[in-house]
Amino acid sequence: xxxxxxxxxxxxxxxxxxxxxxxxxxxxxxSVILFVDNSHFEIFAVNCEVPQLESWIIENSSFIKNEDLxxxxxxxxxxxxxxxxxxxxxxxxxFSEDEEDEEFQWHxxxxxxxxxxxxxxxxxxxxxxxxxxxxxxxxGEISLFxxxxxxxxxxxxxxxxxxxxxxxK
Length: 169
Prior knowledge:
This protein is an alpha+beta fold. Helices cover 36% and strands 30% of the residues. The chain has 5 helices and 8 strands.
C-alpha cells in the first residue's frame, strides 16, 4: 500500500474536516496527516490563511513534483538521505575566505530550493516545524531534520497534489 499525504482543512479546530474550501473564509485549521497502511498520524496542525497556501502550491507544484536537489550543478542528495537531512548538511559546508562568490552562490541556490519545498515558506509567519516536501530519488517525500528530531516518509506525490488542487479550487 502506498502512503498518502493529506492536508485536512476545517473551519476551526473543533470542526470536522471539510473536503472543499469556502473561498469567503480565509483562515482554516490545517492538519497535515500521513496515512500509512491502516493507520495515520498528524505531522502538524496549525491555523493558517488558505490563499497563502494555495498560491504557494500553485507556484511550486511543478518544482515539488520534478525538482531534484541540485546545488552548484551537482545532485547533492545521497542515497538514504532525506531532503531535510541533505539541506541541513549542505548548510554546514565551510568555505575559505577566497571562496566568497562560491559561498554566496551556494547559499542562494539553497535558499531558492527551500522556498520551493519548505512548508514554512508556504505558511510564512506561522510557527511550524521545518518540514520539506518533494521528490527524492523518484519518490514523493515529506521530511524533517534538525538537532532534536529526524524523520522521513515516502508518499504518493501525484495523489497528494491532485487532492490539494481539488480541495482548493
